[in-house]
Amino acid sequence: MPDAVFDALISYSRQDQEFVRRLSAALQTRHIRTWVDWEGIPLSSKWLAEIEAQIEAANTFVFVVSPDSVASEICRAEIRHAAAYRKKIIPIVSRSVDPNTTPAEIVEWQWLFFREQDDFDSACDDLAEAMTAFAGPAGPLFGVSVPVAPVRCAAGVPVALPRAVAWAVGG
Question: Is 113 helix (H, G, I), strand (E, B) or coil?
C-alpha cells in the first residue's frame, strides 16, 4: 500500500531509464512529486502489485512512449490498469514510434514530445502544466458523462466543474 500520494507515476521500459531519471528530476524541480519503480518497492514484495497500488494512488499516469515501452507486456499491463482506474494518462514520446503499434489507451490522448530534437525544458514545463491543470480522473465517473467546463478559482488555478455549477457562478 502506498505511503504517500504522488502527482505522477512514470511508466517506462528499462531501456529508457536514463531518460526517466532526467525527467523525474526535472519534474521534481517543478514541484511535481513523481513515483518511479526503482524507488519504494520493498524487497521480497510482489512488485507488480506494488506498481498497481501506486498507479491507483497517483493523480496522473505518465507513459514514456518508445519502441521498447510499446513492445513491453509489463508496460501494456500498467497502461490497462491505469485506464481501468480512469487515471489521467499523459503519453510522452522519448523516442519516435509508429502510432499504429501503440496501445489504444495511449493513442487517444494528446502526446507530448521529448525526443532528442525537442526542447526538453519546454516540454517539462508543458508536462507540469498538463498535470496541474486538472488532477482528477478522466472520463465518465461511474459510467455517467458529466459535461465539464474549465473555470478558474480566485488564485487563477484552472479547475473543472460541472456546467451547471459553472453557470451558477457566472459562466
Answer: strand
